[in-house]
Amino acid sequence: MATWRCVKQCGACCHLDPAERPDLDEYLSFEELQLYLSMVGQDGWCVNFDRDSRECRIYADRPRFCRVLPDVFEELYGVESPELNDFAIECCRQQIEGVYGDRSLEMIRFDREVGI
Ligand code: SF4
Ligand code: SF4
Known about the structure:
two-stranded antiparallel ribbon, about 5% strand
């Protein structure tokens, strides 16, 4: 069975362009939405994302909506723990496809590392 994990050197979910996430206000509170929008750089990437290392500069202090954790996913998306694995894999694949493409090295690496 495929098992979700965050693959290093990806960062696709740190591409925050709101035009690609029209339903943000359905799952973020007003305060979180303001925070989210304040993090969007001119190129659509999060201002905290280091494009060279592809790592988060504020990882330990990143906002709740950046964390793939059972309680966060249940609160934000109504996804309960047994479904979290498949939901997280699907979220990552959608994000990677949108940012890098469905035949990108990032997608190949993700699929291989999670066991698809
Ligand atoms: S899209 Fe998924 S694999 Fe890529 S950085 Fe985000 S959580 Fe990790
Ligand atoms: S705060 Fe960090 S984890 Fe969250 S979107 Fe920005 S770079 Fe990515």
